[in-house]
Design a protein that fits this description.
The chain is built from 27 helices and 18 strands. By secondary structure, the chain is an alpha+beta fold. The chain has 4 domains: about 110 residues, Cytochrome Bc1 Complex, Chain D, domain 2; about 140 residues, Jelly Rolls (Sandwich); about 120 residues, no CATH class; about 220 residues, no CATH class. Helices cover about 40% and strands about 10% of the residues. The two termini are about 45 Å apart. The longest helix has 29 residues. The strands form 5 sheets. Strands 1, 2, 4, 6, 7, 9 and 12 form a 7-stranded antiparallel β-sheet that branches. Strands 3, 5, 8, 10 and 11 form a 5-stranded antiparallel β-sheet that branches. A hairpin with a 6-residue loop joins β10 and β11.
């Protein structure tokens, strides 16, 4: 072992899994080691290891400063110690001595159980993350109008009139249009409507699945006006058409899980000159996407209540633990929350206050009571709790009394309220009732937001969220919501590490036709598959690996062939494919994932292997000692990709990790750089054999993707990794902070439920919402 590798580096990030040790090393961890053997291991460790690694594996700054912790098994630790330690004299600690040291380390400070025992995690104090801030402000706005109810209906409601204005007697057609993309030319848009003059009113909601900046594109040869975000909130005004301009673009940040109402007034006016052709389309460019007509699946034929979308730029949150945490408190964060508070105050003044006054115009306004009542309602929702007299005086009365201008008073109140720790640190106010605390935690867990839904607040006020059955019922109801659906989609993208696949391009000489439009269809296909699995009745996690069907488009079918042909006739949208078990294994071999885990012109077993180990199986890997480029196929024209990778990673220092990475990545070699199935490469049969050594020391061997997929579907390591990833995403805290056995208990329930993903999320919400025993997790202050 090269001297520049510390024992800690190897143990923390990797496992050696190349040989079977003696029978005792294949047994349950530490189960076969007596107290005497572990004590002997402690003596050997103290004599030969502690000077470099510290008495308790904590590290010694002048030698190896990092702690000895990781997820290698006792057998893997034993082999490593036997072969390489101590570095200068590796023959000093071998055989039974190496096994005793490994058992001592594993039991005392190295393993996950030891780490939890030595330093139990705590629920960390956290501010709102950027996404939680966006969602909370959106729900603070929605408190006054509601949120869009979940609906299976798709498309846009269209009402077609004869003549260039709305007249009930001239209404000729009322229907749901699947998309907005029409070219009427110089003809009538429908029966009973004259081609010379007509008016079309379109109304609907835009369902957003991904938070980010969108470009909304309207192309129209006739005059039109577009409201967006709220009916009567003008977004694009071309009521009086100017010149030859027919393309209109607006950029806007939209928030996942929200439905943005919109409407169009489209007018072909009668004129004395030649009648211009009439055409209209509504497109968008989503984040990291390409321009496309907005798909049917993102359109709802009901405009619904108005929505607020925060436009302020927010800094990225910490992700060093593998999930977003609101921990950074700095000038950038402070400035961004100030900007957000001012932005919300503006729309509250313009829209919410005006609407509130209309609704309460008959109420007395003595001493500006209407304004104070409005602000009291806003601040209560923001603080997630009723206000006492002192808080009402500080946050409302004093601010209103300092200015005679109502709009200025609203801005003052909202600025200090939305900058308050009571808003920005949602779990710190211990004065809340138990049910109020539970409501807050449920909203944070499932919506990344605050409790604004009337039924949830009412349940909290009636103290109906104090036992697990009540909380479970509430979580089940909340899961049936676009906001929860969006958070589940985000969790799946994190589990698959899709955020790192922002742009996929391939060598056009080898993969002609693999273009951005195809990639966009593949991404939509993967998302549709994920949604179908999760929101189906069984919601069976195993389908992520065992499903022999997916979703396709005509473009996908043309590129990938018969296995991706739709069932029935092709259409503009996504269609389900027929089953083909040989070519498809759920998302594991989906072309979007396979092409994203490949190079420009070749596969990458390394990328695919790392993905499987880190994300699907939940194991840790040491970053490579130094960056290197893959061997060019031109240097070894007769070698297959598997042979080239094996050659490049053959040195001992590479095999520390690649003995494990390669063994998994090679099992996907039947799928090329764009995810098409192949049997041969370089005129040689594909060798897709692989293996994996689990945490329980058992070696799994698989021949090809089908056996790998079956293993992953049933692997305890994979199940635990999925549950852990889901918990971290929804709760934004480590599972162990809610009790040392939390992750194991959730995993056990997950298995017993038939691997039901929806039930898992509900159970996670219950754990996060209910009070934590102080003996197992202390909240940090």
């Amino acid at each position: 072992m090269p001297k520049h590798f510390s024992l800690r580096q190897v143990l923390l990030f990797s496992s050696l899994a190349t040989i079977q040790w003696q029978v005792m090393l294949r047994a349950e961890p530490t189960a076969i080691f007596s107290e005497q053997e572990i004590a002997r291991g402690a003596e050997i460790y103290k004599a030969t290891c502690s000077s470099c690694h510290g008495p308790n594996g904590e590290g010694v700054s002048e030698h190896y400063a990092l702690a000895l912790i990781g997820d290698a098994t006792i057998g893997e630790l034993t082999k490593l110690i036997n072969d390489t330690m101590p570095e200068e004299e590796p023959d000093q600690c071998v055989g039974a001595d190496a096994a005793a040291v490994a058992a001592y380390m594993h039991h005392t400070f190295y393993s996950e159980a030891a780490q939890l025992r030595n330093r139990p995690p705590r629920i960390g104090l956290a501010r709102l993350t950027g996404n939680q801030l966006r969602q909370s402000l959106a729900d603070l706005y929605a408190h006054f109008g509601g949120v869009a109810e979940i609906s299976d209906k798709r498309g846009v409601k269209g009402i077609y009139f004869d003549g260039d204005r709305w007249k009930d007697e001239n209404k000729k057609i009322e229907r749901t249009d699947p998309v907005l993309s029409f070219d009427f030319g110089r003809e009538s848009p429908g029966e009973g409507i004259k081609k010379e003059a007509f008016y079309i009113y379109w109304e609907g909601g835009l369902k957003v699945d991904v938070t980010g900046r969108y470009e909304i594109i309207v192309r129209s040869t006739c005059s039109f006006q577009m409201d967006f975000g709220k009916i009567e909130r003008t977004f694009i005004d071309n009521h009086v058409q100017s010149g030859d301009k027919t393309e209109f673009r607006e950029s806007i940040v939209l928030t996942a899980g929200r439905v943005y109402p919109f409407k169009f007034d489209f007018i072909q006016r009668e004129r004395k000159t030649e009648l211009p052709p009439a055409s209209f389309s509504l497109s968008w460019i989503p984040p990291h996407g390409v321009e496309q007509v907005i798909p049917t699946e993102n359109l709802i034929p009901d405009s619904g209540p108005g929505t607020f979308a925060l436009q302020s730029i927010l800094p990225a949150d910490d992700r060093s633990y593998g999930f977003e945490r609101g921990i950074a408190i700095n000038r950038q964060w402070d400035d961004s929350t100030t900007s957000a508070a001012i932005e919300f105050a503006e729309i509250a003044s313009d829209e919410l206050w005006a609407s509130y006054r209309r609704k309460h115009r008959k109420d007395s306004d003595e001493n500006r009571s209407q304004l104070k009542a409005f602000l009291d309602e806003v601040v209560q929702v923001a603080f997630r709790n009723p206000l006492d007299d002192e808080l009402r005086r500080i946050y409302i009365d004093d601010q209103v009394d300092k200015t005679e201008d109502d709009l200025e008073a609203i801005k003052r109140v909202l600025l200090i309220s939305l900058k308050s720790p009571r808003f920005l640190y949602p779990q710190t106010d211990v004065e809340h009732s138990l049910s109020r605390q539970v409501a807050t935690r449920l909203a944070l867990t499932l919506y990344d937001s605050l409790p604004s839904d009337e039924w949830l607040v009412r349940a909290a006020d009636k103290d109906q969220l104090k036992n697990r059955d009540q909380v479970r019922a509430a979580a089940q109801r909340m899961l049936d919501d676009f906001r929860a659906h969006a958070k589940v989609r985000e969790m799946m993208h994190e589990w698959l590490n899709l955020s790192h696949i922002t742009e996929i391009s391939k060598n056009q000489e080898s993969y002609a036709g693999f273009n951005p439009e195809l990639v966009s269809d593949l991404k939509a296909s993967l998302n549709a598959f994920i949604d179908e699995v999760i929101w189906s009745e069984p919601s069976d996690y195993r389908q992520f690996f065992n499903a022999d069907w997916s979703f396709t488009t005509s473009r996908v079918a043309e590129f990938y062939g018969a296995a991706w042909s739709p069932v029935g006739e092709a259409s503009m949208g996504l269609q389900r494919t027929a089953g083909d078990a040989r070519l498809r294994h759920g998302l594991l071999t989906h072309p979007y994932l396979m092409s994203g885990l490949a190079y420009y012109d070749s596969t990458s077993p390394i990328h695919r292997g790392v993905f499987l180990i880190r994300y699907i199986l939940g194991r840790t890997l040491r970053p490579p000692n130094e960056a290197f480029s893959p061997l060019s196929p031109d240097l070894h024209p007769d070698l297959t990709t598997r042979q080239r990778v094996a050659l490049q990673t053959s040195p001992d220092n590479c095999q520390v990790c690649h003995s494990k990475i390669n063994a998994l990545g090679f099992a996907l070699e039947n799928f090329d750089a764009v995810g098409r199935y192949r049997d041969v490469e370089k005129n040689k049969p594909i060798d897709s054999s692989g293996s994996y050594i689990a945490r329980d020391e058992q070696t799994a061997r698989f021949q090809g993707t089908a056996e790998l997929a079956d293993y992953l579907a049933n692997s305890p390591d994979a199940h635990r990794a999925f549950v852990n990833r889901a918990f971290q995403h929804f709760v934004k805290q480590p599972a162990a902070a809610y009790g040392a056995g939390t992750l194991d208990e959730l995993t056990s329930k997950f298995v017993k439920s038939g691997y039901n993903v929806k039930e898992l999320i509900i159970e996670i919400a219950v754990v996060a919402a209910m009070p934590v025993e102080k003996s197992t997790a202390q909240e940090e202050s």
